[in-house]
Amino acid sequence: MTKQKKRIFGIDLGTTYSSIAYVDDFGKPVVVPNAENQNTTPSVVFFDGGNIVVGEVAKESSKLYPNEVVSFVKRSMGEPDFLFDYDGHSYRAEEVSAYILRKLGQDAETNLGEKVTDVVITCPAYFGINEREATKIAGEIAGFNVRQIINEPTAAAIAYGSTETETDRVVLVYDLGGGTFDITMIHIQPEAIEVICTGGDHNLGGKDWDDRVVATLVEEFKTQTGSTEDILEDPDTCQDLQLSAERAKKILSQREKTPVSITHGGERVKVELSRERFDEITRDLLERTVMLTHEMLSEAKKRGYDKFDDIILVGGSTRMPMVPDRIREEFSIEPKLFAPDEAVAKGAAIFGWKLSINDELIDRLQRKTGRRLKGVEDLASMDQKQVEETARELADESGYTLPAVKSSLTRVRDVASKSFGVMATNPNNEEVVVNIILRNTPVPVEATQEFYTAVDNQKTVYIRIMEAETSEENVPPDHSVEIGTAVLNLPSGLPEDTPVIITFKLNKEGRLYATAIESSEQRKVEVVLETSSVIHGQDLNEAKSRVRNLVIH
Ligand code: AMP
User: Fold this and answer.
1) Cα of 212 to ligand 1 centre, how many Å?
2) Fold of 206-279
3) DSSP state of 456
4) CA angle, corner 433, sides to 432 and 434, nearest 5?
5) Exposure winner among 96, 231, 427, 434, fewest CB in 10 A?
6) Using CA atoms, how far apart are residues 357 and 152, in angstroms rounded to an integer?
7) Position 169 pLDDT exceeds 50
8) Cα(204)–Cα(202) distance, rounded to whole angstroms?
9) 100 C-alpha vs ligand 1 centroid, how far in Å?
10) Model pTM score
11) pLDDT band at residue 527, thresholds of 50, 70 and 90?
């Protein structure tokens, strides 16, 4: 039996549902049920007068109070323009997400009788710099010490890897959630879990399947009543239809058909929806996931991976029978439905557990050697006999098994989910984004590129840092988004074409650091990414203090 000094919890902050897990004293990941005794909590927030309500009650309230309820807030992470106005105050996506996190933490604390302080939070693999930062800040607003943000498919693969006895496997994680689709290739080995390649669409998920059902129901209403009215204009009807559509979709995962009733303007219409019809109206959505999977596979091929051993299905939407059916047909492989709703939170918890064992091991090694160690990566340069001996001591004294201590040393290596570059001007005087770090490059990574001043005696270089989905070296500006800016001041009198060297460093969490050097005087600026995409300064402090004493209902 093991006794952890400090538990690090894993949180799956989902578009539609969220959950929290930890690793128990026997080394097993466990999802903590919420106050309603459910393993997942709807990611829905209801501003109810002075109260904040999160979860099932909030979701149900969306029917009666559509303007006081926020759903799908994850889709707005890192978006400066998302503001939810309530009672004279504007709430950013980070704060709304913090309420969801707080509810998870609070319920886990009540359930386990211990404080939730340190957490690992997951985010979709395609999240860019700002969305990741926003996720981390949401955790901080909720009062947590956010140890790391890790990718959802990586977390799912960690959970899967922990159940497999086969030790060298290449797996595809097909993750179809409520609002997002991620497809990721991961190489699981005893000493490392390595992401090879990732793809997907952040606007494709169960919600789109629901919307198709809603559209069909609206058409049926029109046909049966002869009405030409757009019934979705009525917020109550719209919310009602959305809930009925999701319910019908879930029933169709079990049964061949289901009745659905539509009530609007005093009229009530009954529709029988069959699975066959449902499959038909959503076929193109499913095909898009297959197409994106092939796209990712051809990227992986360029990296030397031309086959895989398993496909694991995660995300609630993989419960729709059409998903495993189509995958079986396309890849002639039996997909593994792997605790679709829980895999991500459990994987994050295992990752957190590894971090906590690592902390202890590193702490011991530091005390023994007097050396300052930054992390597991420093262990490779140490006397391996001493590492082994310390691992054994830790196992003996803490009650962890030696394999558990050793497995905590497994490296988890991810890839950049976007390309990062700067805006430059080409010889034809056209603006072009020159990517310095390419998408799907293993992280951490550091890359440098030389640019040149445009005119004699240029006083400043204005650096626009860009993020793009593609992995080409040069992309047109409209295929990328600006994520930050920086200014490098130059000494006077420099000729045109003076080199300016820009270095990008992307750490293992997907955080970007940039420096720019003017070569004549080696004038260097640490580029601080200035962005309005995440809450900061006074606004951040205010949000933190609002959440600090809040009890979520
Ligand atoms: P996730 O974000 O991974 O929790 O996935 C949530 C999505 O899965 C939502 O769109 C749900 O409607 C969907 N979902 C959950 N259970 C089922 C089910 N039994 N059949 C179809 N979709 C489901």
Assistant:
1) 15
2) Actin; Chain A, domain 4 (3.90.640)
3) T
4) 110
5) 427
6) 22
7) yes
8) 6
9) 18
10) 0.85
11) low
In angstroms, what is the span from residue 44 Cα to ligand 1's centroid? 14
Mean of pLDDT values over 270-280: 97
pLDDT of residue 324 exceeding 60 = yes
Contact (CB, 8 A) for 359 and 380: no
pLDDT of residue 3 exceeding 80, the answer is: no
Domain range annotation of the chain = 8-165+341-347, 206-279, 358-413, 419-528
- Indicate the average pLDDT of the chain: 90
Write down the CATH superfamily of domain 8-165+341-347. Answer: ATPase, nucleotide binding domain (3.30.420.40)
Among 317, 319, 322, 337, residue to substitute to test ligand 1 (most atoms within 8 Å of Cβ): 317
Q: What is the torsional sign of CA 53, 59, 61, 62?
A: positive
* Burial readout 464-481 (b: 16 or more C-beta within 10 A, e: otherwise): bbbbbbbbeeebeeeebe
Region 502-531: mean pLDDT is 77
Could you tell me which of 287, 78, 339, 292 has the C-alpha nearest to residue 181?
Answer: 292
Nearest ligand 1 atom to alpha carbon 315:
3
